[in-house]
Every structure is written in C-alpha cells, then in structure tokens.
Design goal:
With about 300 residues, this protein is an alpha/beta fold. The protein has helices at about 5, 10, 20-25, 105-115, 155-165, 185-195, 240-255, 275-280, 280-300, and strands at about 40-45, 50-55, 65-70, 120-125, 170-180, 205-210, 230-235, 260-265. It has a single domain (about 5-300), classed as Alpha/Beta hydrolase fold, catalytic domain (Rossmann fold). Helices cover about 30% and strands about 15% of the residues. An eight-stranded mixed beta sheet has the order 1-2-4-3-5-6-7-8, with helices on both faces. Helix 5 packs across helix 6 (about 185-195). The radius of gyration is 18 Å and the shape is globular.
Length: about 300
C-alpha cells in the first residue's frame, strides 16, 4: 500500500488521497448478506448482561482471524423494522429485530469480512438492555441512553466479545480486531484507551466518524499501542471531524499510532449502502476507499 496510508504524522489533517484504480478493482463492493448470520450469545464483561450477537462465518476452514463490529446509536437493526423493538434476548426473541432484520450496512460489512476470510461478530448492546429500537439523531443527552453509554457500558460488551471469540477453536485468538461506527466508533476508541499499553487486547481498531468530544471519550489524548485507523467525512452533519483530528494529533504526540483520513464532501454514515447516502458521489467514493483501507489496516498488523 502507498506510504501515506501508514505515515501517521502526515495522515493527521490530510484530505483524501486517491487510491489507484487498479487497487480499487481488487475489492468489489458487496451486497447484503446472502443468508442471515448465526445468532449467538455471550457474556458482557460487566458480569451481568448476556449479549446477543450475530456471527458471519467464512466459507473456508479455520481457524480464522476475527473482527468485532460495534453498531452506532441507531442500533444494529434496520430502521424499517426496529421502531417497536425493545428487549431482545435468549428468553425474549424478537419477531423483527433479529438476524434477518439487521441494517444493510451491518449485513454488508459482516459479509464483506466473511468473504475475506474473517469471522465477524456484531454484538447488540441495546436489545439485551431493552432498547433494541436504538436512538435518533441528536439524542446524546437523552437519559435513557445512560445505561448503554459508550464510555462505561459498551466497552465492556466489546471486551466480553473478545474473550468469547478467543474461546472458540475456529478463531485465531492473536488476530482479533475491532470496527465501530459513530457511537460504536467512540466505543472502540474507549476500548483502545482501556487497553492502553497492554498487548493482550484487540490488535487494531477501525473507527468510522466517531464522536470525539469529552462526553463521548474517556480521554482527549489516547494512549494505546494498538494502531487505529480513523475515517471521517468532511461534511459530517452529526459529529465534528475537526475535533477527532485534534484528538488524533495529541494522541500521536503522546506516542499512539493513528492514521486519519478525511474524505472531502462525505457525510455521516458515508458507508451506508442505501440509495440515500450512495447517491452522494463523495460517499460512494469514500465507501470504496474505506473498504480497501480496512483490509489493508488489519493485514498490515504483524503477527
């Protein structure tokens, strides 16, 4: 891959660099998953919540590297089905919010990773806590979000997912990665901060348009030895890309390894494969670029 993808200092504050057409052709844009993923259950590291998860499996024999996918504030399910969803658990399955009702973005990315030989796990942090409906825009101060927040609650779900994956014989326990969107991106950054200099956690994180303010992050300067790739849209209407770049600058100065890419003209949810987002040319270009970068970022992490 070109040096600019790996050059942390030069990446901070940069605008989008065009990836060669030949490289883009190596990665095709997937459609939604051909079949629903498996439904699984595992304990959160909070010691009290059983998390519902959706597992996308590669077709090739394992053991496989793995990646945990952290949904945003809207939850893992499609807005076409989640309005009336509340509790989703082993004892209370939902007729709408289930493996067949995932949003197109989550189904697309889960299948994308499986097609590239990764076992992908999408945990539902909201359904097991009675909030499968998710939350709308600009609801960060909603008190109903306190017990599913990205600073003290959701990182424990991600840590539980890591432990559960490492207990499986079909997973390479030394090759588990993290990906998060928006609120889930903030959660991923907080997981990295909690790991700190420990080498036993997630090997790397991919964060898409996270919230980076004090209300979203445990620290405004991240200290972690695991590399982070941060993908932002310059025209994000929900979070501030400039604030995330400021966090990245301070974190790099403190010794963390963070690559930042800002896509000119791209909005929040630029990788949502739905027509509303993908009719924006900048979003379509950003999605294809992000898929190339995502694979490059995890495969560049040395054993």
């Amino acid at each position: 891959m070109p040096q600019f993808i790996r050059n942390v200092a030069d990446a901070v504050g940069m605008t989008h660099h065009a990836i060669p057409v030949a490289l883009l052709m190596l990665t095709t844009l997937p459609t939604a998953a051909a079949a629903a993923p498996d439904t699984v259950f595992f304990p959160s590291a909070d010691g009290k919540t059983e998390i519902v998860g959706y597992l996308f499996r590669p077709q090739t024999p394992g053991p496989h590297p793995a990646i945990v996918l952290l949904h945003g504030r809207g939850g893992p399910y499609s807005i076409n089905v989640n309005k009336d969803c509340t509790l989703v658990s082993r004892a209370h399955p939902s007729a709408a919010c289930n493996a067949g009702g995932l949003s197109r973005r989550h189904a697309m990315w889960g299948q994308y990773w499986a097609d590239h030989g990764y076992l992908a796990l999408l945990p539902d942090s909201f359904g097991p806590r009675g909030k499968a409906h998710g939350f709308g825009r600009f609801t960060h101060d909603d008190p109903d979000r306190a017990d599913v927040n990205e600073k003290t609650v959701r990182p424990l779900d991600a840590e539980g997912a890591l432990g559960w994956l490492r207990s499986r014989k079909d997973v390479r326990g030394d090759r588990v990665f993290l990906q998060g969107w928006s609120n889930g991106g903030s959660t991923a950054l907080n997981v990295m901060q909690r790991q700190g200099t420990a080498s036993s956690g997630y090997r790397a994180a991919l964060v898409f348009y996270p919230g980076c303010g004090p209300a979203a992050l445990l620290a405004q300067t991240l200290t972690t030895i695991a590399p982070i790739t941060m993908l932002l849209g310059s025209d994000d209407e929900e979070v501030s890309p400039a604030r995330c770049q400021d966090v990245a600058r301070r974190s790099i100065a403190a010794g963390s390894k963070i690559d930042v890419v800002v896509y000119p003209g791209a909005t929040h949810d630029f990788d949502d494969p739905g027509r509303k987002r993908q009719t924006v040319p900048a979003n379509s270009a950003a999605l294809r670029d992000a898929m190339v970068r995502a694979i490059a970022a995890v495969e560049s992490v040395q054993d």
